[in-house]
Amino acid sequence: MTVTQTLFKRKLVGFSVLLVFFMFSIFCLSIYKAVAQTQEHSTTDQSIGSVEGESQAKETDPGVVKFAFLAAAIAVSVGSVGAGAAVGYVGAAAMGAIGEKPELAGRALIFVGLAEGIAIYGLIIAIMILGKV
Fold it and tell me: Which residues make Cβ contacts (< 8 Å) with residue 115, sequence separation at least 6?
């Protein structure tokens, strides 16, 4: 494989990662807007209910709940795919480094663990999204 093919593949991977991140951020912003409108609607309903003397249960729109679950699933899946790619690259480099210098095993394990933390960030965001619904 030539140098230009390698550079093209790296640019293509970088562009695709940025494109996925951009699409994911737009999707999350739309979900955030929908959840904010639902909370605004429920706050208005609660103030009307308190005027009438009735306490109304918080009702959520099924469409918003559907998109919240979809956003949580996408957050976990993108985080897991990113963690898998990171562990693949870091793990391969770590095994190469350990093969040359076995005393680097501890440091290499730390870097693999840091790459695995990306999946936990996706899980935390999913929990935060589901906590709003």
Answer: 83, 86, 87, 89, 90, 91
Largest pairwise CA distance in the chain:
76
Q: Which amino acid is at 74?
A: I
How many domains are contained in the chain? 1
CATH of the domain at 45: 1.20.20.10
Structure tokens at 9: 């593949």
pLDDT in tens, the chain (133 residues): 677 777 777 777 777 777 777 777 777 777 777 767 766 665 555 555 554 444 444 557 777 888 888 888 888 888 888 888 888 889 899 999 999 999 999 999 998 888 888 889 989 999 998 888 7
Q: Which range marks the domain in which residue 52 is found? A: 3-132
Angstrom distance (rounded) from CA 15 to CA 5: 15
